[in-house]
Structures are given as structure tokens and as C-alpha cells.
Amino acid sequence: MSITEKSTIEARPKIDKGLDDIYVKESSICLVDGREGRLLYRGWDIRDLAQHSSFEETIYILIHGRLPAKEELAEAKRAFGESRAIDPEVVKLLRCMPEDAPPIDVLRTAVSFLSNFDKERDDPTRAANMRKAQRLIGKMPTLVAAHHRIRQGKRVLVPDPKLGIAEDFLRMLTGKRPDPLSAKVMDVALILHADHSMNASAFAATVAASTLADLYSTIVAAIATLKGPLHGGANEAALKTMLTIGKPENAESYVLNTLQNHGKIFGFGHRVYKTWDPRALILREYAKQLSELRGEEDLFHVAEIVQDTVVRELSAKHIYPNVDFYSGLTYHLLGIPLDLFTPIFAVSRVAGWTAHVIEYWEDNRLVRPLDYYVGPTHNVYVPVERRA
Ligand SMILES: CC(C)(COP(=O)(O)OP(=O)(O)OC[C@H]1O[C@@H](n2cnc3c(N)ncnc32)[C@H](O)[C@@H]1OP(=O)(O)O)[C@@H](O)C(=O)NCCC(=O)NCCS
User: Fold this and answer.
1) Which residues pair with 38 in a beta bridge?
2) Over pLDDT 70: what percentage of the chain?
3) Given this model, what pLDDT does residue 3 score?
4) Which end of the chain has fewer CB within 10 Å, C or N?
5) What number is the average pLDDT over the span 240-244?
6) Nearest CA to ligand 1 atom 15
7) Exposure of 215 by Cβ count < 10 A (0-12 exposed, 13-18 middle, 19+ buried)?
8) Residues contacting residue 94 through CB under 8 Å, at least 6 positions apart
9) Nearest-angstrom CA–CA distance, 169 and 186
10) Atom of ligand 1 nearest to the CA of 269
11) Is the Cβ–Cβ distance between 373 and 4 less than 8 Å?
12) For a substitution probing ligand 1, which of 317, 323, 329 has the most ligand atoms within 8 Å of its CB?
């Protein structure tokens, strides 16, 4: 009996649209503790990683599940530096993209294209997948920076393997080496976005992985899923709100009016965190320092007043700032344009995606859910010449 026949004769099952509260795998990669406001990668608290670690070490922790020894970390940094270069054919592809192509679409296309240059693309062994993950993670910042330079009519800069991923990314993007605070803030932002357990994009990557598609295909699926405004786009909206408010003296009334009209303030509330999102607290401190360095304290004050007003009005409903409230502001203060926020999210999250995919392959099962058929079952086919 086919599935369709089965669903028409069975009583209507419970339908888990959105898969809320459905566990799809066991994982030892990431714990989001929404009650206590903690985020752990492989058991390590992101507050410690943001303070003491680097994006390269965080990737190592996510993918290997342990802290690297000193030489292993040095080797990982060397390998990331080396794999940052992209093939001239890939740069040619970036030049072919229409001028107004959204950078996240360009990144998705470029990652797909990139797979053709990886000789190990179809080698399914764990060791080959680890190497592919390292190469792909290394290249993503270069893709984003190179495309941004091209659309601005500027020269594409080659990577500097001596620099860390975050610092070199800002250099390749802006054309100048960032000051130490900006490099540190970029590094911390990449650490904080590197994973967040089984969200929509990690699940999309997992579904593709479950068919035993190659690693690049799984990341293309993840990037496509991240693009949606319900997933990767909230920090853009949060920053736009701050820019619209403009002046600190307008902030409280803006929030109160929005709430009175039952509107939502972007960058607040979370499905899992019912308290302060620990990532928001970390980025808030860096956004403050950056705003002082850039002389843009007014915008930070706007953010502070919006935060204080929303928390005062909505903490009874467990609504607090999430990471997006401060990440948009942080990127803006780093001089990064709005439409690069989601690609930068992908530059970081690719670490978590690859970790989840490699973990899933250790005990793979094809993802094949059901839908409950509610359409007609006895339509009569009428040849086209006899249709009205
Ligand atoms: C993220 C989000 C979808 C979580 O939704 P949720 O867990 O379903 O929370 P709920 O929608 O049940 O919210 C509970 C209450 O708080 C209110 N609320 C939630 N987030 C709010 C926000 N950002 N601004 C104003 N009110 C908010 C809801 O309207 C609801 O009020 P009600 O009980 O009077 O109906 C939601 O908070 C939101 O839309 N936030 C803004 C977008 C955003 O920042 N997204 C990024 C998330 S990482």
C-alpha cells in the first residue's frame, strides 16, 4: 500500500508542523540553556571562549569535540590561513554576478561552484570530510569579502595567511588592516554565532546530509535556509529600528508606541532563551567600546534606552534582548553594510553546520517524514482535447 493510500484511510494523525519539540538526533555539539541563559559549545561556556579563545580554536572545538593542544592549534591556524585563497575561476564567477545580486545569494552560488575545485568532494570518509570542512570554512570569508570589493568596483585582495580569520576578513573587506579592537570584536562575533544547536539551517544541512550528499551540498542547503528573514535576518531589522529612532530622546516613546500598537521590537524575545541571551550581553560590551572609539555614542544610547524600556515593559513575559539586537549594531559600528550581516552569519555558522553534518554521518539515517494527504482521491482524467 502506498503512503497516499494509507493516509486516506487512517484517522488524522497529530501533525507537527514546524517540528517544535521534536528531537531529531542526539548531539554533543551545543547546549542552549534557555532558562539559565547559558550557551555551551562541546561543554565550554561561550563566555570563556569569547574572552580567551579565537574563532579558529572555536571551530576546532566544535568539529573535533576537544581543546586543541598548542601545536594542534598552531597547525589549525596555519591550515585556515592557507585554505583562505580561492581559485581565480571562482573570482571570475563572482565577477559574473549581477551588480545588485544579494550577497547571501552570491555566497550560496559560490559555495556550490567551489565544490567542483575540491578533489575530495565525493570522498565520504570522516577524515576527508574534516579536511573539506577546514577548506570550506577557510574560504567563506574570502568569498564574501571578494564579492563585496567587486561590487564596489575595487580590487580583490588576496588573503594574508599570517593573520587570523577575523582580522583578515576585515582587511580583505575594507582594504585596510583593522585596529586591534575591531579585529577582536569581529573574532568574538564569529565565535558567538558559530553554532546554536538544531535550528532551521542546521536541520536543512542535516536533511541534505542524510541522503549522503557531499559536504558542500549540505552547506548550500544551510545557506539557502539561513537567508530567510525568520532566521538570519533579524539583526538587520534591529539595526534599522535603531537608525529610524535616530536620537536617544526618541527611543522610549518609539518603544512604548510600538508596544501599544501590538508591534514587535526586533532583537527581543527568543524561542529558547527566556532570560538574557548571553551572546547579547557580550556583544553589548563590545558595541559600547566600539561606539566610543567611533564617536557614535548616540546610537549606542538609543540601543540602551530601547533595551531598558523593552525589559521594563516585557520582562514579565520573559522578553529580553537576543543576539541580533547587538550584533547588527556591532557590525554597523565596524563599518559593515547591512546586506553583509547574513553572509557573515554564514561565515561563522559554517563551523557549526559542518560539525552537525559530520556528527550525523556517524549514525546516518535518511530523513523521510510524512505528509498527511487531504487532496482528492478519485479524479477522472479528461484528455486535453475534450476539456472545456
Ligand atoms: C523570536 C520570537 C519569534 C519568539 O517568539 P515566541 O517564543 O513564540 O514568543 P511569543 O510570541 O509567544 O511572545 C510572548 C509574548 O511576548 C510578546 N513579544 C515577543 N517578542 C516580542 C518583541 N520582540 N517585541 C514585543 N513583544 C514581543 C508577544 O507578542 C507575546 O505577547 P502576548 O503574550 O501578549 O501575545 C519573538 O520574540 C519575535 O518575533 N521577536 C522579534 C524578532 C527577533 O528578534 N527574532 C530573532 C530571534 S533570535
Assistant:
1) 33
2) 97
3) 47
4) C
5) 96
6) 317
7) buried
8) 106, 110, 143, 146, 147, 150, 156
9) 9
10) 37
11) yes
12) 317
Q: Identify the CATH number of the domain defined by range 234-333.
A: 1.10.230.10
Whether pLDDT at 372 is above 90? yes
Q: Of the listed 148, 196, 270, 332, which one is catalytic?
A: 270
Q: Is the pLDDT of residue 335 over 90?
A: yes
Ligand 1 contact via 322 beta carbon (within 6 Å): yes
**2 has a pLDDT exceeding 50:** no
105 CA to centre of ligand 1 in angstroms? 28
* 105's grid cell: 545569494
* pLDDT score at 160: 98
Q: How confident is the prediction for the chain on average, in pLDDT?
A: 95
Rounded to two decimals, what is the model's pTM? Answer: 0.94
Q: Where do the structural domains in the chain lie, given as residue ranges?
A: 30-229+338-361, 234-333
With the most atoms of ligand 1 within 8 angstroms of its CB, the residue from 195, 231, 312, 314 to mutate is 314
| Architecture of the domain made up of 30-229+338-361 | Orthogonal Bundle (1.10)
- Ligand 1 within 6 A of 317 CB? yes
Residue 388: pLDDT band with limits 50, 70, 90: confident
CB 292 within 8 A of CB 150: no
